[in-house]
Fold each of these.
Amino acid sequence: MNDQTKNDSNDFSRKLTDILNYGALNLAMGLGYRARLFDVMDDLDTPQTASQISKKAGLNERYVLEWLSIMVTGGIVHLIKDQNGQDLFQLPKAHADLITRRAENDNMGIYMQEIPLLTATVFEAVEGGFKTGKGIPYEMYPGFQRFMTELADAKHRQVLVSQFLPSVENGAMVRKLKTGISVCDIGCGEGVALMLMAEAFPKSQFLGIDMSESVILKATSTVKETNLENITFQNRDAAALTENTELRGSLDYVTAFDAIHDQTRPMEALEGIHAILKDGGLFSMVDIAASSDLSKNMDHPMGMFLYTVSLMHCMPVGLADGGTGLGMMWGREKAVSMLKEAGFSDVSVEVIPKDPFNLHFFCKKRE
Ligand SMILES: C[S@@+](CC[C@H](N)C(=O)[O-])C[C@H]1O[C@@H](n2cnc3c(N)ncnc32)[C@H](O)[C@@H]1O
């Protein structure tokens, strides 16, 4: 082995060790996030013992101690010895700012659950997909839908009404929403984004469409618990909207948040969105910021994570029923070309304030 090969081999060996350690740390952080341990530790003013932390969290001390050991060796939690040599643990504020529920849109802790949850849900199904090429239907991801709602809540609550909508048409969209227009959110999930918009703009009418019956039932029952009267939900396949005479040409504004790339027939869905808009109507597609050219994603700060979420979820759900299977990293070039093919002559791609993960594909239907 020459020196160069030896160095490469040592570097790669260190990298493999890092992969094992960080993969394990991600899993443990996902568990801790779920158990609210970061939030509990964030509320403590001074370093505490594992016993005190577990009591505060209402959790088993032995489990919490093992978890704290991972957090300490992983550099997430600080270890301090008191004068009796006893181990005390502290979550630094600078870390808590990024991994607790109070972190809202900066919350990276929430994402720590994603790969463990997908692994527990579909590891074997995805392994099977490598052999058969078949997709995996949405129904196979029951816990994941709940996670998506939690994520939507963290994402939308802080930025949708205060940052994103004011950025659309340089503020003109907010003026229209205040006056009263008809809006539809495609792939609305449990309706987090729609409810925030409906509350902020009571003179506008909001319709949520999702093909999952269970999320529409959940969204409908959640709305019933509010005073919102300007919001309805329909259980529909976006790919069938072109045939829908009731909705054709009826909407001023359509939104789709993270909801086009994992559809089985995304081209038909985009054509359907074009069909339900009024002439001159506007469409905001918010989707992942990436390039369609793999070589241009080499420096993507979240490339490995996003391609893995795509492998475990977005791509297989998009392949179900013989679907297209675009995958989450379909990229801006492909997205723009499909939007144009669907009939949108006017497509601009805009950066979203406070959201480096996504791009805003802003489209207009010809007058
Ligand atoms: C990744 S989730 C995004 C949910 C929500 N828009 C958000 O911001 O969190 C994608 C949603 O699209 C829905 N969906 C997938 N294919 C669809 C289709 N063909 N028609 C309507 N909804 C669809 C799924 O059921 C799911 O609720």
Amino acid sequence: MEHSDFGKRFAGRIGIGELMDDLGNALVADPAPLMLGGGNPSHVPPVQARFRKRMEAILAQPGEFERVIGNYDTPQGAKLFIESLVELFRSEFGWKVGPENFALTNGSQNSFFYLFNLFAGRFEETRRKQILLPLAPEYIGYSEVGLEKDFFRANRPEIARLEDNLFKYQVDFDSLRINEETGAVCFSRPTNPTGNVVTDEEVSRLRELANRQGVPLIIDNAYGTPFPNIIYEEVQPIWDEDVIVCMSLSKLGLPGLRTGIVIAREETIRIVSRMTSVFSLAPGGMGPALALDMVKTGEITRISREVVRPFYENKAQRAVAWFKREMEGLPFAIHKPEGALFLWLWFEGLPISTQELYERLKQKGVLVVSGHYFFPGLEEDWPHKDECIRVTYAQDDELVEKGLSLIASEIREIYSNS
Ligand SMILES: Cc1ncc(COP(=O)(O)O)c(C=O)c1O
């Protein structure tokens, strides 16, 4: 095979890779642009101090550092960490889980690659199954994990318009079809990119529909409760043998250590562990080692509730206030920020697409992500896909305020020239 043939195999599937490259190239410009396009969590000082203290304790204990870095864990992941997680979820939520229901991975992105390719794709040559995303827009990172084409089917949402320039997406159950081609149903809660939190009522209806079809409901809890708890709505977390919950230590502050957690029925955990053994032998051990005592003592829940959530919620409120101030007199809407790290801005009827807006903003020195990337599996034409952008508010306040101000002045210019 010619090298160029490899490229062809992936033709049309390199959206996120191209975007990451483009953002990366733009970042080396001088002066560096304001980066509101990434998904990095904030460096929350009390949380970082806690991990530093734990690292110092590992280093101070003779042989402990060498043990953590010098051994492979089993493919399922660090045993003590898993046992502590079992206790945490039993006491926190009363879930009837045991160690057989947990597997660690090298980040939840890694978990989704395993799970999606396990439940969707081609079966027995002809049967094809897809991952159903019941509420588009959805996380960009899902879009290319399928090893085959047409891997996702997404459902267009209903839009509830709220007061104060806010709106909220809702699952449109009237148009939602779960059928024999559905391999699993998945949604992120809170959602990246919108900050939406799928309501408890919606979750229970989705759970019922998935159960009726005999397929798992996968809940991407990367921002959810009990950690990192970047969620501003009170929700009831759920798990049973028909639900798969995916967690991560990234948004708590350890994205560099790549630790994902899958909570599922025993059979699924066994397969996920085998996949880990094939793809990477074992999950990394440093994330579990740094978080172990916080999980054991339950402090991970406390710090998430008392420090992490208010930290981000305050940032979200400030960002909304700044943007509203800058957009005075212009048409815009913001998805109600209910969690995660992002404001999802909707410019209904904007005379240019948000991809063009992205290019113009890049020239002005601010990087955002055009919303059209966040609709994997939603093929239909829908102008809304080209009317939204995602901006992070996890960066330093000064940078976020400046970036939002530049976005507003660009929008003002676009309207005044149209
Ligand atoms: C909704 C969602 N799920 C999963 C991930 C993947 O996170 P990680 O692989 O770092 O655990 C992210 C990262 O941004 C995310 O936003």
